[in-house]
């Protein structure tokens, strides 16, 4: 479906002429319910359009969907380089090729039935939507890392079977698929196999409220895209995962099974780009052992890795949740002391030095020797 352009003849809608020079809001309109764009074949994620709609000037909110699409697309094209748009188009064609040949084992995975997917305690916390309700279900094995029961065993088993079906199809058809990332050579990108709408819903309805509580500086600008995939560890798969940060603002990591030993996560503090390779302080050292059905939620910039899976086989569902607005604003910031451990340490050092210098100056003024 072609993108709408004005009245269909390349002419701007009259109402558009009044707002084309308007600027986006600095903060989202939390009371506005954006439209859905999933039914359109757009060159950007439908969720990105829904998220951006909350930032539209007030005069645009009552315009037609076509008018809003044109306005938002003009903005996105301005900020997305041609190479990135080409990559998105190729990715769409790649996914269409897969879905025209691959037969899902469980089509019900493509929708999100919360009563069959999630454990009751997680659903109750999400429905309450309060900080207290979320803190009642989590443990914090190390500062900034939150663990909670999330997925029912039956859902975990279904998703594992679906991944095994994908691997069988890939082998039989000799189809070359994109693996999750540059570090994981085994597993599958779930978005490529028809699960993108389900994962969008998972992020938008269930993870965003949690991010608002635990990572407020990120979520106030809204998570609007994701990269969802399965990783596989075992003797004939990936064995361990090196020290790294994720390409995300918030990461969800849920163990699906199977039976295994090892594979513990280790954490070494949150860092901005500038300080990602700095040392670790003792209070930043933390560990987490996987339990099937249990999730871990942390900042993408939280440095971590996975120790070797010494026996058995382990599969994990990973979601890298991203915020385009947060990434854009971050380009103009120099101080990340609200979340970067090293920025905070250096800021405190500067403050201590300033306080010491002030005391020294006051003593000198009073004629008191500092020797």
TrEMBL record:
The UniProt entry, under Pfam families, shows:
OGFOD2-like
| Domain Fe2OG dioxygenase, first and last residues per copy | 224-323
InterPro entries assigned:
Oxoglu/Fe-dep_dioxygenase_dom (IPR005123), Pro_4_hyd_alph (IPR006620)
What keywords tag this UniProt record? Dioxygenase, Iron, Metal-binding, Oxidoreductase
Highest taxon in the source lineage? Eukaryota
GO MF annotation: an example: L-ascorbic acid binding
Keyword Oxidoreductase listed? The answer is yes
- Matching SMART domains: P4Hc (SM00702)
Cofactor(s), names only, from the UniProt record: L-ascorbate
Q: What PANTHER family does UniProt report for this protein, alphabetically?
A: 2-OXOGLUTARATE AND IRON-DEPENDENT OXYGENASE DOMAIN-CONTAINING PROTEIN 2, FE2OG DIOXYGENASE DOMAIN-CONTAINING PROTEIN
**Name of this protein:** Fe2OG dioxygenase domain-containing protein
